[in-house]
Structure formats: C-alpha cells, structure tokens
C-alpha cells in the first residue's frame, strides 16, 4: 500500500512497519482522533479465501474485547476494496527479541516485572477462551517506559491452519513451540504456558534452549530432549526462579501450571529469601505400563515356599521303592525330619524379629512425624478474622505488611506468604499483607512535555487521558500547554481522568492582497490574523502616499500565525520632496520577561494588565517618529518568547532627529527621543 493513501477516508498511511506471514503492518494517522495508529492488512494471497476472511473478521471482532494495558488494543475492524484490515494501538519502542539482545544480561527483578505484564495479558486472553498459539518475543512489544504489550491476539487463532503450512511462520515460531503442537496435537492454554516458559528461559540466558539446522530438528528436540538448566548458564539464578522455567516447560501438559495466574504467583515470589533452600522441580513419575526389569536383589528377597509338591509319577515310584526297602526309607525320613526342624525354627525366629523391627519403625514414624496443616484462604478478610483463622489452623501470625491494592478493600488481607492452600508444619509462621487501598500517584507538572509519551505513561499506570487541541504560536505542536489536575496532587489512577490541552502549532494563514491599503488597514488585518508587520518606504508616482506599494510574501502565500510580513509603503511622488533626508538604522534589544523578574515598579506590579500577561510570551509594540511615522501610531507589533533584537529604520530630514518607544505587555521598557544618524 502506497504512502499517503487514506484508508476508509480516515487512516492516512505514513510508512510500512513490517511484513509478516499473514499480514502487512503500516504506520498510519487517524485523521479524526488525531493520533498515530497501526494498520494491519490481510495478505493478498489470503484475501480470496472466503473461509479465511470470515475467520479474520470473527476473530478480529473478538480481539476487540481483550481490554488490558498489556495487550495492543484493537480500535477498528473493516474492509475496503476487498482489503480486510485491523486498526490497532501504535506502540513506540521495540520488540522483546531486540530488547533482550540490546539489554542482556537483564536484572532478575526486571525480568520478573516484564514477565508479570506478559502473564497478565495472556491471563485476560485465556479468560476469554482465546489461545494465542504463537507466543514469542517478536510478538511482544516494549515501549520506552518498559511497558510490555502483546500483539497478534486472535489472528493466530483465526489463521492457525494457514500458519502451520507456511514455512516462514513455522520457522519463526518453532523455537517456542510446545511438544504437543510439535506432534501435531491441539493447542491448549498449557501450550501457551510452555511458550511463556521458553520466553522466560530466553530472558534469563539470552538464548533459546534448542537450536537446529531445520525447523523439524528443533521441533523434535521440544518433545524428546530435556530443557537445559538455566543455572548451568548462570549459576547466580535462584533455584526457585529456575523451577518456574522447569514447571512451565514440562513435557506433559499435566505437569505444567494449571493456569497463567498460578505461574504468575509462583514467579512473583521466586526471589524471596524464604525460598532460598527450594529443591529442584522434578515432574511426577508417569507409570505408562512398560515392562520393567527387576534387580537381582529384589529377586533374592522374595519368600521361598516351605514345601514343593512332587509330581504324581514321582510319588508312585517312591512308593514302589519303599516296599522293597522299608526299613532304609523309614530310617532316612527320620534323619531328614530331625535335620529340618531346627532350620525351620531359625527362619521363623528371624522373620518374627524382622516383623517386629518393621512394626517398630512404623510406630516411631507415626509418633514423631510432624503434624501438618494447610494455610487457610483469608484473602479479603479483615486482619482480626485472618489472625483467628490462622490460629485455628494451628499456625502463627508473622509480620504484617502494608501494601496498596486496587482490588482489595482497605484493612483487608491482600495475600499471605506462604500462599493459601500450602501444606506446612503446625506452628509455622505465616506473614500477612494488608491493603492500604488503591495506590495513589503524585502528579508531576507536564506542561511542555510531549503529549504522546506522557499519555502512554499515564495510561499504563491506569489513568484515563483525554486531549483537547488548540492552536498556539508559542508552543510547539504536540506539547502540553495545560493539565486539568494540578501538579503535586495525589490521586488514584484508576479513578482519575486527566485532560491535557495540547498545542497543534500555529494555524496557517493565506495572505490577502494588501496593496494600496493604508497602514491602519494593514495593521488591522495583521491583528485579526495574528501576523507581525515590518514596514519599508519608497517613493512612488503611482501609489498615493501612506498606502502599500507591495508586500512580501505576496498575495495567496500560505504562512503561519506569528510570521512577519514586510510591507513597502509609498512616500508619494519624489518630485514633491524638495528637502534632503538622512536614512539610517538603529538596533534595539528587547528583553523577554518570564513573569518571575522583580525589576518592575510597584505601579507596574499592581497594574491589572501585568498580572494577566502570559508568562511564556510577551506582546511587544514599537512606535517610531521620523518622516514617515508618528509616535501616535504603532510601527510594529510582535510576540516574543526570548530576548529579541530588532532593527528600526529611520528617515529624517537633514539636521533633524527621530524617536522611538518600545512597549512590552503594556509597559514602556525603552525609549529615545533624540535619534540621529551619528
């Protein structure tokens, strides 16, 4: 799409931001709301598939329901000339992939802070039953205030069939693909959790866990190879933090976190000193019914039968032998019986002793095993009720912390440490976090700051920000001129709406034809259109004295408010002037008054016009007296924002003098009644 094209009569394309496997993205400007946006257009080769178009529209509309500060907001969905498009929030910054490359190694606390934002966004999507399927650092944007925003929600689901058949898309995502997706199975919420674990791995180590020459080789590693230990790469990483990676990237979905909120809770406390001695996470054993080989020691421990039944034929043969030698057989039986009984008795005694020992061990374990209990769920309870519940559960109340919370009322429990449901020994200490109410934020003075960056920062904090645009000749476009709530106010972001008055710069003026106008007429025109005038003089046989001969810039020129227009005024016919004249110039420096100086007189400070003057600009009026001017009329009027030097031209009869007077915001600040050539 070409630059300058206006989509739907509203979104003017500025430049291309990138091309993807399913859509192309452009930076555009919303002409109605006066803001920059991102426009995503479905790729040309996908526009002729009716099923794809329907899914694109359906899922795009669903994505507009995902309202979260960490999700790129979808503003509009539409179609023009067969082009399906999405209009989204424009995020100034970089993607997480580039951020990791530029800032690695990233402090652990910063890693957790970014991951918590990402998890918050995915949690919102999962609550709307939307699975991203393609979570990767390239789909996560980081703005200049380190606010993370996930993009491509809904589109990955809507076009999943195509994305799995497009080689470029698979190559870009296979490093973060879950084992079940690599096998061709259905993606679930646990699949997104696996991708989040790989992203956390990359933020901690600066690299992905699996590399390969082809996408297939990488995919095979995801469901065949164990995730490398992050502590092997950086031994300083706490075991609790590595456990978050290991649990999120377990091969079996059942071994991963049940939901994103659980992963966020675990990650939030991973740097806590209380988890310093945590053991390495190991997934539960899975008995899949495979044949197992028992060791020889197990076989030797199996009980041996005391008597083995002989086959029938053997009994018959023995009976026959006994009839021939009865005495010998009887004698042999007596000897065998006599020799067996002591051996059997020894086995019985040893077995009894062993049984008693085992029984004693079990009794000892039962007697001395510590009594366990579960941490009750006291979130939302008052402190007194929470203390009572912990005592009832045979636990001790530890340190009570105060923390701000937008969700939990004042003086009620926000969370416990360890978390509710954790099994502990009785009499273990449990800390409480009590809500102090919503977090308050102290507003700064934003006048003169960029509206775009200020609004983005405040919206990320939870403020509602509105804009009112006005023209200004003294404040650059896009800068804040006023704010609705005073600087220094402590407010609750989620309950506060801030309105900023923002400059759109100077308004343009198309110049009228001022030739043959009198000076007063020209000055009235300049005042009405906020223009500054400068005068030159020349003799003219065609234009009456005191009228404009020519102007610069000329008629029809487009200028900005505050620009200077030079008018050449007629002195009349030169033949009518008999006396010689002197022409010379005088430079006068006009100091800018910001309103904080103390050099004004008491009369000036008490004057109402002084108290109402603007502190960011001064209105200056200059009066001249020479052959062409009188001190009773304004020679030049201008607005200044800094110290300014002006050149005053004089034309006086030989031997005569001129005069000037400079008035700033209604007060005379400079004058000279005897100005001569030398």
TrEMBL record:
Keywords: ATP-binding, Kinase, Membrane, Nucleotide-binding, Serine/threonine-protein kinase, Transferase, Transmembrane, Transmembrane helix
InterPro entries: Kinase-like_dom_sf, PASTA_dom, Prot_kinase_dom, Ser/Thr_kinase_AS
Catalytic activity: L-seryl-[protein] + ATP = O-phospho-L-seryl-[protein] + ADP + H(+); L-threonyl-[protein] + ATP = O-phospho-L-threonyl-[protein] + ADP + H(+)
Biased composition (Low complexity): 575-586, 607-617
Name of a matching Pfam family: Pkinase
Domain Protein kinase, first and last residues per copy: 11-271
Ranges of Basic residues composition bias in the record: 333-342
Membrane-spanning segments: 347-368
SUPFAM superfamilies assigned: Protein kinase-like (PK-like)
All residue ranges annotated as the PASTA domain in the record: 369-436, 437-504, 505-571
A GO term for molecular function: ATP binding
Coiled coil: none
Region (Disordered): 312-342, 551-618
Gene3D superfamilies, sorted: 2.60.40.2560, 3.30.10.20, Phosphorylase Kinase, domain 1, Transferase(Phosphotransferase) domain 1
Signal peptide interval: none
Documented EC number(s): 2.7.11.1
NCBIfam families in the record: PknB_PASTA_kin (NF033483)
The protein's name in its UniProt record: non-specific serine/threonine protein kinase
